[in-house]
Amino acid sequence: MPRPRKRRRVCSLPNFKVFGPLNGTINQDDFILLTVDEYEVIRLIDLEGLEQEQCAERMDVARSTVQRMYSNAKKKIADSLINGKILKIEGGDYVLCDANHKKCSPCFGGRHRHRRNGSQHID
Question: Which residue ranges run through the membrane (predicted)?
Fold first, then answer.
């Protein structure tokens, strides 16, 4: 029996979930799905400047898992940019961190973004 999959910790959901070319027709084959946990890896490594090990600690997963997700996410983003496909961010195996989670405190430069009662706010 395989080991149960560990849910990845994500600080917040993306504000923008669909990206793509503005010209041309939209075909269902032209959609690429980037999961929320892959989005979080890109955010932490490329935007926040964390190392893979730091990212893994923040997301509560192994460094090898971060490395695999990062590689998959970069391929999807490159496919979207090079081939003019629409990139949608949704799904994945994740859990949103809460404001009291000790590993979340550095997220967003000390500011937190969490959904409470259906609305977003910054603490």
Answer: none
